[in-house]
Write a sequence for this structure.
């Protein structure tokens, strides 16, 4: 098993100008695997690729290749090659010389170079373009040359940085199939970066979902799709209904006002959880008596293969449903969710809890903002405290200056009857909000919390700090 | 459209009066003798008269030496200025360009004073020093511009394909900066051929350049011969810029396919 690992990332962190772009990422990549690093822009996936390629050095942690630490090895000595996002073909060289660039540096005999270049150009279906200038090629052709230039050196690992992002949809689909075939044919390990979840599901053996510099989940495409481990993954991969739920006991979960049988165990009793139900896994029918949920169709849109409908249940939850049959808006329908189609996830947190510091008897500083709170008896400025407030007690304001803190909407989930927002205060630091108001991603908001909703508990100071503070008294 | 055409009128008049007309006059004078008759005598005189021909060849030599020295000094300077790791602030670039704001004659007089102060002899060495000093920014700036705008991914791609730092430079950075080099060479070579004031001041009139020959002839009333020499110089400059132009556009646009 150990021998199978070609690349091991060991607690990698990367900080640019005090911003943690990657935070403690560990990952094993097996020989010959097609691994996709998937995440929204700014999640750290490209940085991770650059660390593997050697264009950046980790702030802490190590990159191992075949058991050897290569963190300090410059890129030109690493036995891996990269396909760049905008191809980076040399404009002063023609197609042939671009592909032969790496081979010429190895000082191989001319005949060997010639043979290899022609073979690889044939592999990417670019035979006959040898003398063409790279600027005269279409995007798809440049893409092929870029791939040829990288694989002609027979690297142990091929890194691909969003290689298909600049192509149109049809071309992208064709190239996906070709890449997959190439991977099979060459047996090289592919590490592929993309923000396109569909592409990741199509191509990969393993998907690594990244967000905010953290690995959210590692798994096969089916694992990631069917068993997302948190709401971020569920929301990012495919369409989903994500709802607040309570795990009543093993194999029984309550959401949307009903108890459902499920297959999950070990979440405790009466514990708050999140559930994911994929829109294609909800059965919709005209019969109401046999259904678990009853509701009214709100909208119905034809999507080609299926219809996409929004149904509001009688309990006031809105669910997305995909079905081959159309149900007219306004019609009464019944819904059934089967136990194996319910994916239960741990809640990452159930309230906003932060370290804070008292500024006065009725003022507390959290994350750099000062909030009014109910007077805390005997509190002095500088006292360390734990501050807690519930998701639904946060008041968001349009004017950032009206809040004690400001942030931008980073995470936006619709939970059937309300929105669950993650307000980014600084990178990786969120205040979560449950609200019925509609906000957009990246909205700048001011955050307020009513004094009576803030719960403050003093932190019992660590013994090592005590002498210093008592000395001040 | 017609309204816009009217706006161009003042410029057209200006160009006609101060650019086109003098050029036509130079061409006319060059093919006339003092009496105004058509003749090739001026050109024959240039080819046969040893002194002018020598000055001409010498001027081209000096211009070439200046250009090569500017390139050797300017390229590394531009490279360092364009590298954000070596030069994180853009202020240094302005410092390099700053001398261009000062009149060339004043700079040259300052150079003379500097040579006097250091008790160095004026002459050919001083001339080349002065020319390089005067024209170096014209070499640095275009190269700096090309290097600055160069996509970093080309360099990364070369590294990725196994090129060590020296190979990255010789195989990617240098070839890609050819447009900057050729426009820098033009901007140095063309004016150095025609300088005369710099040469006069820095050599105490000991060394004569082609520009000085032209100026002397015209000052001494030999308008026709002076015009012929000026025309020859124009043609030379025109030819070099044509060569340079071809190179520049080829480097920028690639082949004709």
């Amino acid at each position: 098993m150990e021998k199978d690992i070609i690349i091991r990332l060991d607690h990698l962190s990367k900080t640019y100008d005090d911003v943690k772009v990657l935070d403690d990422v560990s990952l094993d990549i097996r020989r010959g695997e097609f691994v996709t690093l998937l995440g929204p822009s700014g999640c750290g996936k490209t940085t991770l690729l650059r660390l593997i390629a050697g264009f950046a050095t980790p702030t802490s942690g190590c990159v191992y290749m075949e058991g050897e630490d290569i963190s300090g090895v410059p890129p030109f000595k690493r036995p891996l090659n990269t396909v760049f996002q905008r191809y980076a073909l040399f404009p002063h060289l023609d197609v042939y010389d671009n592909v032969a660039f790496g081979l010429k540096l190895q000082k191989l005999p001319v005949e060997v170079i010639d043979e290899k270049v022609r073979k690889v150009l044939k592999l990417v279906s670019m035979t006959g373009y040898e003398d063409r200038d790279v600027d005269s090629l279409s995007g798809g052709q440049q893409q092929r040359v870029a791939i040829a230039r990288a694989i002609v050196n027979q690297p142990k690992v091929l890194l691909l940085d969003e290689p298909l992002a600049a192509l149109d949809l049809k071309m992208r689909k064709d190239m996906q199939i070709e890449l997959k075939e190439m991977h099979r044919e060459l047996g090289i390990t592919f590490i592929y970066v993309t923000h396109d979840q569909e592409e990741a599901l199509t191509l990969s053996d393993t998907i690594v979902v990244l967000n905010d510099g953290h690995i959210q989940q590692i798994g096969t495409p089916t694992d990631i799709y069917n068993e997302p481990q948190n709401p971020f993954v569920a929301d990012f991969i495919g369409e989903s209904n994500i709802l607040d739920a309570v795990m009543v006991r093993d194999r029984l979960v309550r959401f949307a006002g009903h108890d459902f049988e499920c297959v999950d165990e070990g979440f405790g009793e009466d514990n708050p959880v999140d559930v994911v139900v994929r829109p294609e896994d909800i059965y919709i029918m005209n019969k109401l008596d046999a259904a678990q949920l009853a509701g009214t169709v709100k909208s119905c849109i034809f999507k080609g293969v299926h219809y996409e409908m929004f149904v509001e249940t009688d309990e006031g939850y809105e669910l997305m449903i995909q079905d081959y049959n159309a149900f007219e808006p306004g019609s009464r329908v019944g819904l059934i969710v089967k136990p194996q189609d319910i994916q239960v996830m741990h809640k990452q947190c159930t309230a906003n809890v932060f370290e804070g510091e008292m500024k006065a008897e009725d003022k507390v500083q959290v994350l750099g903002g000062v909030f009014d709170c109910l007077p805390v008896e005997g509190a002095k400025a500088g006292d360390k405290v734990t501050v807690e407030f519930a998701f639904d007690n946060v008041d968001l304001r349009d004017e950032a200056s009206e809040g004690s803190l400001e942030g931008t909407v980073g995470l936006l989930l619709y939970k059937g009857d309300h929105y669950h927002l993650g307000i980014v205060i600084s990178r990786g630091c969120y205040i979560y909000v449950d609200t019925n108001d509609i906000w957009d991603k990246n909205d700048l908001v001011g955050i307020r919390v009513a004094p009576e909703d803030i719960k403050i508990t003093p932190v019992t100071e660590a013994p090592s700090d005590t002498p210093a503070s008592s000395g001040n008294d | 459209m017609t309204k816009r055409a009217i706006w161009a009128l003042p410029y057209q008049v200006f160009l006609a009066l101060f650019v086109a007309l003098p050029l036509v006059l130079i061409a006319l004078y060059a093919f006339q003798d003092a009496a105004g008759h058509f003749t090739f005598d001026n050109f024959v005189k240039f080819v046969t008269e040893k002194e002018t021909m020598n000055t001409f060849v010498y001027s081209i030599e000096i211009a070439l030496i200046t250009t090569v020295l500017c390139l050797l000094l300017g390229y590394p300077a531009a490279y360092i200025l364009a590298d954000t790791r070596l030069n994180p602030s853009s202020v240094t670039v302005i410092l390099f360009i700053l001398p261009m704001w000062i009149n060339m004659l004043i700079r040259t007089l300052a150079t003379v004073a500097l040579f006097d102060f250091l008790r160095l002899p004026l002459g050919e060495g001083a001339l080349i020093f002065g020319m390089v000093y005067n024209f170096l920014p014209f070499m640095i700036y275009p190269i700096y511009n090309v290097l600055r705008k160069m996509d970093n991914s080309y360099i990364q791609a070369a590294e990725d394909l196994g090129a060590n730092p020296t190979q990255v430079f010789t195989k990617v950075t240098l070839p890609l900066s050819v447009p900057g080099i050729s426009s820098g060479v033009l901007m140095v070579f063309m004016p150095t051929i025609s300088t005369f004031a710099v040469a006069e001041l820095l050599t105490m009139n000991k060394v004569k350049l082609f520009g000085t020959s032209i100026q002397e002839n015209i000052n001494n009333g030999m308008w026709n011969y002076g015009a012929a020499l000026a025309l020859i110089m124009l043609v030379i400059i025109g030819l070099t810029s044509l060569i340079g132009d071809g190179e520049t556009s080829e480097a920028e646009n690639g082949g004709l396919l």
User: Anything to note?
Assistant: Residues 24 and 30 of chain B are 10 Å apart (CA to CA). The mean pLDDT of chain B is 85. The two ends of chain B are 35 Å apart (CA to CA). Chain B is about 80% helix and 0% strand.
